[in-house]
Amino acid sequence: MRIFGLPHFLIGTAFLLTSRRMRGAGSWMRLTALAAIGIGLCMLFDRFGFDPAYPGEFNPIALLLFYFYFLIHGFRDEAFFYKSYGDMPADAQRDHERIMGVLQALMLGLLLALLLPAYLLYGEFYPKFQHPALSAMFPADWPYAMRFLATVGPMALIAVYALWRISRRFEDGLTGLWRVHRPILTVFLISTGIILVALASGPWTFNFVVLMHFVGWYLFGRYSLGRRPAPPEVRPWTWNWMRGTRTGFTVLHLGLAAVFVGLLAISTYGFGKEDVLELVIGSKAFFYWTIMHVTLSFFPR
Quick check: is 301 in a domain? Predict the structure, then answer.
């Protein structure tokens, strides 16, 4: 995940800074504001993200919030891919975009409703995932089934109502929703399925969702560049070549991935993860990279 993720962060930031969107003082002011918000979130995560009862372990609530912050980013980008690849119907596109927004909110709400009681159950087996705030959400004498219904039940009713409203926009109801939006719904279901596996296997499974996001952007970048005419007289190994051609884009991504493989190997086998590199490319540093990346991604496309 880090081998693909760290190049994703660096290249995404470099492409943003050198894009046409950054022409004008207003763009730089928006970017500066987002960067300040990202730094603030990183400081909050550094202050509250670790559990004092278990040195070196993450606060389970902070970890849960981090996952959902990334999911907002991930679902949003999947909807962006769906539109950019041309799979979203061109007619009444604004209505379809609203449907995508509602579906993303429903997916996030249902996942939160499922994961809150599941996190409590997981904490019974692994004390480091326990937290007083999580325990205080439900009466202590409630069985797990009651806690599950208390969160999933209301969210399920909201989802049923929302899907009923959406189905009215199609002549054949929910069948029509699936027929028209099957590509994005399939992606949403696969992502959600991987996340739900975490209920049994532990939060580490979430790494697959993050990796899917990085690989998805890499494939989308190659696809987009393949549709554009190559820049005239672009010289290999220049920035314009790496940014404007599919070959250069591939070399840039895989080359940076190879660099990070080397740096991770040096940090792990040369210094036992007790060096400065670990502070920059280590597993815990990756959380701060991700927070900054997700925050900057809200810059208008």
Answer: no
Structural domain count, the chain: 1
Task: Specify burial of residue 46 (Cβ count, 10 A radius: 0-12, 13-18, 19+).
Answer: middle
Residue 95 to residue 75: CA distance in whole angstroms: 18
Residue with tokens 């995940």: 1
Residue 33 belongs to some domain of the structure: yes
Tokens standing for 125? 């087996």
pTM for the full predicted model: 0.85
- For residue range 253-282, what is the model confidence (pLDDT) as tens digits? 999 999 999 999 999 999 998 889 999 999
Question: How many angstroms separate the first and last alpha carbons of the chain?
Answer: 25
Q: What is the pLDDT of residues 165-180, one digit of tens each?
A: 999 888 889 999 999 9
Q: Which domain holds residue 41?
A: 2-296
On the question of pLDDT at 83 being above 80, the answer is yes
- 171-205 b/e with 16+ CB inside 10 Å = b? eeeeeebeebbeebeebbeebbebbbebbeeebee
**H or E stretch at 144:** helix 144-167
**Does residue 221 lie in a domain region?**
yes
**Residue 88 included in any domain:** yes
